[in-house]
């Protein structure tokens, strides 16, 4: 089965489901009502606006800059700059699957927030801090290293929360809080393929330093999934394109391009196999080491088709609240700004219904740029029409 290359357009016509799909998952995830799709949102490329920081932080940034050569200047260097611009926050706020799930999780659980001390890890515009203050928190500490916090300060004042929310500009790992402990941590740390940006490290740091025993983290569960996809038209358009560019062979670029996972919307009809969980995280207990993982997988085709790559997506849950909720970034659910992340294969696998491909997928932060992800795929397939035994490396940057 072939699917259209105009994936975002095709997707517009999909019936967006409100119900959590039946996946191999052990916690209830409900996508909130009224979270409409917004096809106008786009990922904002990492920019390089000047970030205002303390002298000490500027020093650290300069030092880091000297450590990396020009070709390695990727997300590591531009990370906080990228969050300084309002457009990336607009994209996140307009993702109402995301934002409304946080709002519901907080506002429908006022009993948890009443008179409690809250820490917002990476507050951005201050949206989660203001939800927490509205829910009755005694005080909220909102931390962000990006200069967007200057706008957050004005927003907090304008909305009458200046006495309830203290904004602290700096890296969570480098600041001191005026309190020794917090009752609840709220944070939106998830990146593409769940772990891109490595911001969960920061939440783990904050949890271990400040969260009281039996404290609460919003959200507290995350699961990453993978499935096989038929996506021939996009593969041809993105990668095979380089075979003949105005009559020239530009395949050296194809060889690089295919090692970079693609963040895009996948038509749910393109999914050829079952989806399997490859990482389950309990944010209350996980360690930094758990974020480097290798998982075995076995994916069985549910129809005769081709596998051109593997799609990954994630789900998050707020399970410590009165009635657990969550959201999914799956292709068959509503659009989110995370879309899906696809690992395309150089070779196409011809698969028959019932046949399985298996292997191991590994993922770890890149050694030089820890906000990038190095992904390894060992793939084995023996089918009626094709065989495959390969090790492939990708880098999400
Ligand atoms: C994905 S945004 C979420 C913003 C906001 N909480 C929301 O939900 O709209 C993550 C924010 O965390 C900040 N951030 C990431 N790592 C940080 C760190 N180590 N220390 C302080 N801020 C950090 C970024 O600058 C960014 O503004």
Overall mean pLDDT: 85
Using only C-alpha atoms, the radius of gyration works out to 22 Å
Helix-strand pattern: HHHHHHEHEHEEHEEHHEEEEEEEEE
Regarding CATH, which class of the largest domain?
Answer: Mainly Beta
User: Compounds present?
Assistant: S-adenosylmethionine
Number of domains: 2
Largest sheet, in brief, is: 6 strands, antiparallel
EC number: 2.1.1.319
Keywords: Methyltransferase, Nucleus, S-adenosyl-L-methionine, Transferase
InterPro entries: Arg_MeTrfase, Methyltransf_25, PRMT_dom, SAM-dependent_MTases_sf
Domain Protein arginine N-methyltransferase: 220-383
List keywords for this structure.
6-stranded antiparallel sheet; 397 residues; binds S-adenosylmethionine; alpha/beta; Rossmann fold; Hnrnp arginine n-methyltransferase1
Report on this structure.
With 397 residues, the protein is an alpha/beta fold. It folds into 2 domains: 7-21 and 222-396, Distorted Sandwich (Hnrnp arginine n-methyltransferase1), CATH 2.70.160.11; 55-220, Rossmann fold (3-Layer(aba) Sandwich), CATH 3.40.50. It has helices at 7-12, 55-67, 75-82, 86-94, 96-107, 110-113, 127-134, 148-158, 200-210, 232-238, 251-257, and strands at residues 117-121, 139-144, 165-169, 182-187, 211-218, 221-229, 262-264, 276-282, 293-300, 305-318, 325-328, 340-351, 356-365, 373-382, 387-396. Strands 6, 7, 8, 10, 11 and 12 form a 6-stranded antiparallel sheet that branches. Strand 13 and strand 14 form a beta hairpin. The longest helix is centred in the first third of the chain and has 13 residues, at 55-67. The radius of gyration is 22 Å and the shape is elongated. The two termini are 31 Å apart. Residues 80, 83, 89, 92, 122-125, 127-128, 143-146, 148, 171-173, 188, 199, 202 line the site of S-adenosylmethionine. Its main location: nucleus.
């Amino acid at each position: 089965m072939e699917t259209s290359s105009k994936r975002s357009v095709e997707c517009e016509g999909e019936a967006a489901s409100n119900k959590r799909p039946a996946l191999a998952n052990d916690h209830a995830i409900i996508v909130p009502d009224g979270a409409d799709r917004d096809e106008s949102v786009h990922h904002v490329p990492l920019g390089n606006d000047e970030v205002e920081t303390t002298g000490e932080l500027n020093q650290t940034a300069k030092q880091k800059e000297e450590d990396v050569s020009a070709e390695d200047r990727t997300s590591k260097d531009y990370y906080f700059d990228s969050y300084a611009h309002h457009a990336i926050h607009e994209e996140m706020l307009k993702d109402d699957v995301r934002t409304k799930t946080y709002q519901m999780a907080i506002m429908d659980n006022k009993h948890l927030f009443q008179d409690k001390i809250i820490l917002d890890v990476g507050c951005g515009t201050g949206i989660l801090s203001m939800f927490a203050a509205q829910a009755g928190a005694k005080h909220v500490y909102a931390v962000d290293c990006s200069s967007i916090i200057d706008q957050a300060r004005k927003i907090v004042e304008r909305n009458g929360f200046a006495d309830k929310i203290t904004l602290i500009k700096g890296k969570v790992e480098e600041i001191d809080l005026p309190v020794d402990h917090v009752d609840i941590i709220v944070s939106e740390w998830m990146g593409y393929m769940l772990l891109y940006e490595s911001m969960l490290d920061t939440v783990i740091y904050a949890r271990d330093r400040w969260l009281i025993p039996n404290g609460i983290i919003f959200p507290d569960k995350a699961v990453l999934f993978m499935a096989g996809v038929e996506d021939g038209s996009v593969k041809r358009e993105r990668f095979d394109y380089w075979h003949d560019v105005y009559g020239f062979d530009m395949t050296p670029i194809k060889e690089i391009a295919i090692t970079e996972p693609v963040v895009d919307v996948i038509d749910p009809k393109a999914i050829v196999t079952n989806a399997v969980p490859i990482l389950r995280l309990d944010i209350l207990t996980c360690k930094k080491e758990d974020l480097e993982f290798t998982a075995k997988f076995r994916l069985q085709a549910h129809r005769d088709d081709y596998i051109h790559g593997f799609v990954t997506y994630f789900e998050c849950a707020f399970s410590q609240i009165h009635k657990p909720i969550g959201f999914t970034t799956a292709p068959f659910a509503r659009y989110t700004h995370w879309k899906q992340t696809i690992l395309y294969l150089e070779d196409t696998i011809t698969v028959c219904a019932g046949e399985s491909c298996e292997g191991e997928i590994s993922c770890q932060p890149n050694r030089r740029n820890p906000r990038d992800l190095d992904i390894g795929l060992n793939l084995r397939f023996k089918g009626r029409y094709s065989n495959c035994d390969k090790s492939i490396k990708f880098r999400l940057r």
